[in-house]
Every structure is written in structure tokens, then in C-alpha cells.
Amino acid sequence: MPDADAVIITEKDAVKFSDGICTDNVWVLPVCAIIEPDLAAFVLERLEDVPKAV
Q1: Cα–Cα dist 40/15, whole Å
Q2: Per-residue model confidence (pLDDT) at position 38
Q3: Which of 27, 28, 36, 54 is 20 to 30 A away from residue 15, measured at CA?
Q4: CA–CA gap between residue 26 and residue 3 (Å, rounded)
Q5: Where does the source fall among the domains of life (predicted)?
Q6: Could you report the per-residue pLDDT of 8-54, keeping only the tens digit for each?
Q7: Nearest C-alpha neighbor of 27 from the set 5, 50, 49
């Protein structure tokens, strides 16, 4: 990426850049997931059917 004017990555991917890669032109953006209430309810309902680990 030495030829790039700027590189945009997520916070999750920024962890991978901590191994000596030049980060002068890297911009890190946070990610915030917004889960629809119906989806959250669906997932929680499905999880109730999953057997619990002993």
C-alpha cells in the first residue's frame, strides 16, 4: 500500500496492522451494528431451543 494516498479500514482490521506495517496513511473507522428488534427477538427465540452445554 505504499502508493495509496489513504487506506480506510475498520477497527477490527486495524489489529492486523500492528505488526510493523507503515500506518501513516491508514484511517481507522469504528463500526457500530444496529440490529433490528425483530431480528434480535428471532435470534433469542432460536437460542432457547439450543441445548445447553454441560
Answers
A1: 28
A2: 97
A3: 36
A4: 12
A5: Bacteria
A6: 989 888 888 766 666 678 889 999 999 999 999 999 999 999 998 87
A7: 5
